[in-house]
Structure formats: structure tokens, C-alpha cells
Design brief:
Blueprint lengths: L8 H6 L10 E2 L5 E4 L4 E6 L2 E2 L7 E2 L2 H7 L7
Antiparallel strand pairs: 1-2, 2-3, 3-4, 3-5
Length: about 70
Amino acid sequence: MTRPLELDPKVLEMLVCPLTKTRLTLSADGTELISVAARLAFPIRVGVPLLSLDEAREIDPAELERQLPELGHD
């Protein structure tokens, strides 16, 4: 089972999507970093964010809203 990541907010501010260079957001369950701009989720394994496009998975708008409810409705 994957444990949620406890990430220092200052470290999170420095991480960016390798595709869009936009800021990443920690998923609601703390197991992925999400690029809203690219609609990609990057896994976090053993506490290490894997920011490779090969490791990323695409996420649809409905899942994006579930993972990041603070975004609200567009």
C-alpha cells in the first residue's frame, strides 16, 4: 500500500511539471503530484516523486476535480 507523502510546503513550491513547467499540487490522497495544466499525475514511490513523463498518467477533468476539490468548477 502506498503511504501518503508528507511534503514540506517549501519543497512542493519548487517542484514543477517537466512538460509545462507549471507548479504541481499534491493529490487529495497524498500519493501523486498533479499537473493541472498538463492533466498528468506523477506517482510518489517510497517518498520520491517520479517526475518522468514515462511514469505519469493522464487524468480526466472529473478525476482532476476529485483529486483537487479546491479547484472548484471551471
